[in-house]
Specification:
Layout lengths: L9 E3 L15 E9 L11 E2 L12 E7 L7 E5 L4 E6 L2 E7 L7 E4 L5 E6 L7 E2 L5 E2 L9 E9 L1
Amino acid sequence: MGAFASTDVTVTIASRDREIAGGQAGRNISLAQIAFGDGSLTYATGGVPLPAIGTFGFRTAISFAAIEQPPANGFIYKFDRTNHKIKIFTQGVRTGSTAAGAPENGANCEDSFAAEGAITLSNSAPDTTYDIGQQIELPNGSAPAAVTIYVLLIGD
């Protein structure tokens, strides 16, 4: 499995959603659909590289991007302006259905793709979600399923 490249990202902008503000605003505004992932390409630390800014209707820079989070896949998507990438974040730990040998040892944990690992969350119950802290970037080598995100972009 290879890591995502900008050529693995599909950007779709309807003609009515390109350069919404026109020349009067001093900046361009576009509404794009960005699609990537198929369960075989992998996420590399640092994010999913995006195609050139011209693909989004801009000439020099994307100054701001607001991402509508997709429903129910459990990840948070953020625009990395400096590196022109989409970063994926996940949070928390969910225990799987398998309890460890002794109840005080807790249940085995699931990763972001619902696969149980060998990590046990001490004093936890099977099939329970625990809040254990801040979001983390999706681990290097993870292979997320297909997703389409809607992004409002402002730039020049």
